[in-house]
Amino acid sequence: MIAGVQIKVCGLTNASDALDASSVGADYLGFIFYPQSPRCVDLDSYRAFQSELPQLPRVAVTVNPDRDLLERLEGVGFDYFQIHFPINRNSSQLAEEWSEQLGPEKIWLAPKVDPVVGFDENLLPFANTVLWDTYQKDAFGGTGKVGDWDGFRAISERFTEKNWVLAGGLNPDNVCEAIEKSGSKRIDLNSGVEKSPGLKDLNLLERVKTALENR
After folding, report:
1. Residue 64: what pLDDT?
2. Is residue 128 a contact partner of residue 162, using CB atoms and an 8 Å limit?
3. What percent of the chain has a predicted confidence (pLDDT) above 70?
4. Does residue 99 sit within a domain?
5. For residue range 114-164, what is the model confidence (pLDDT) as tens digits?
6. CA angle 179, 170, 161 (to 5 degrees)
């Protein structure tokens, strides 16, 4: 935690970057298991450096995962499961199935929230944590673009019993403004603290820390 803000550093692909994230005060480490992501790691690669990771909660990031994938990720010891998915007529049924398999306390639901359609409140019973990422029609996160901070504040203030995580293009230059406008106490850092996709920049992580401490 940095200055009262919980931090998840996501898109990690190696132990060195995870150690850097831990050194600046990260609370969670995120690893992406989605083949279309430039930050994707496969399970064999993850197992190869797993023992070198700092002792922080680990979040497996997936898109529309099936039962088998979730079982395999659970089997290697992930603490939480961040699940991205489009909102459609099957969303609630899928969220219920994920919740039954893993338990709502382990799930970070990350629905693709179209600003025109809005957030589907029927999803809330299935997870204790909701991650709000920038909407892009043809992508699931990792866009580097900032999102709807006002929308985040509106929904998170209505449902304070949930843990709300703000994601989307957060970096040293905008993180304080994002927190001020959204009211978030939990943020997800990814592309905004990178040298290149999947490789984090310790200097940028330290700049985020300094910005938060000085706000």
Report:
1. 95
2. yes
3. 93
4. yes
5. 776 778 899 999 999 999 986 465 554 555 556 789 989 999 999 999 999
6. 45
Per-residue model confidence (pLDDT) at position 148: 84
Q: Has residue 1 been placed in a domain? A: no
How far CA 139 is from CA of 7, 121, 145, 158, 207, in Å, comes to: 23, 22, 11, 27, 28
Q: Is residue 39 part of a domain?
A: yes
Domain range enclosing 11: 6-214
Q: What is the pTM of this model?
A: 0.93
DSSP track, the chain: -BTTBEEEE-S--SHHHHHHHHHTT-SEEEEE--TTSTTB--HHHHHHHHTTS-SS-EEEEEES--HHHHHHHHHTT-SEEEEEEE-STTHHHHHHHHHHHH-GGGEEEEEE--TTT---GGGGGG-SEEEE----TT-SS-------HHHHHHHHHH-TTSEEEE-SS--TTTHHHHHHHH--SEEEESGGGEEETTEE-HHHHHHHHHHHHH-
How many folded domains does the chain comprise?
1
Amino acid present at 209: K
CA dist., res. 177 & res. 147, Å (int): 12
> Which CATH number do you get for residue 96?
3.20.20.70
Q: Is residue 14 part of a domain?
A: yes
